[in-house]
Amino acid sequence: MIRVRVPATSANLGPGFDCLGLAVDLFLEVEGRPAQHDRFRYTGPGSVASGPDNLVHRGFRAAHATLGLHAPPFAFEARNAIPLARGLGSSSAALVAGAAIADALQGGLLGRDGVFQLVAGIEGHPDNVGPAVYGGFTVAALRADGGYETAVLKVPPTWRLLFGVPAFELPTEQARAALPDVVSRNDAVRTASRAALWAVAVARDEPALLRTASIDVLHEPYREPLVPGLAAARAALRAAGAYAAFLSGAGPSIGVVAPDGALPACRAALARFAGPDGCILELGVGDGYALDVLAT
Questions:
Q1: How far apart are CA 135 and CA 22, in angstroms?
Q2: Which residues in the chain belong to E strands, given as ranges?
Q3: Less crowded by CB within 10 Å, the N or C end of the chain?
Q4: What digits encode the pLDDT tens for the residues 80-113?
């Protein structure tokens, strides 16, 4: 049996569209073992079909195909704590889990970077996949050869992260469809400079820089109609003293970095945003996926 634990992730972090990501300590755990036929069992929030057409099996099969191999029948049991379709990287976690188990089964022929490159290619963007694979704060940039270069920074352990998670889902495809194909030069410059400042804030442990670094003009304004209360919540969080308040991934969750003294007011603002059926998560920074190969 092979067991893997993959963290939830928050991508974009404001201006870092499709390139910045952060792992948090909320996890998908998957156990896999050889079987007569592909099987899948899911426990966790939301509903996931029990057949073989799930993201864990998809990652498992894609890893074997990349190695020129046929994927053997496998039974997976998934225990998930990551809210589905809420901007916390649930799909990337599932794909990474399947690919990582396949890589372990084949003796590590892909390696961690191979798993990252494969799943980033499937997803079409590396922002969630990077932290799911490597942990911490990641920056992923497209290389000239079509692959991705990734840098990983350790987030200071004193940083406090909150997420307001509303009850409704927002599929990534719908959120991406709201975005324009062309942006102005001014918006491009502001986006690049603020995304760069995010990395400096982490590297130098200067979270106050996030008050500028987390402001986005590239995607959040266009997604506001899909996330009721986003603009008001973001303004309330900044007024409460948050260093950063941003749409987590494609949404609808809001991520917050805040000093200790601002946490009560930030929790209250997130509670109003998430509503009575939503939730607030207070999370630490997570590590990349971890594997155990166990005797059966």
A1: 7
A2: 2-12, 16-34, 39-43, 74-80, 137-142, 148-153, 160-165, 244-247, 254-258, 279-283, 290-293
A3: C
A4: 999 999 999 999 999 999 999 999 999 999 999 9
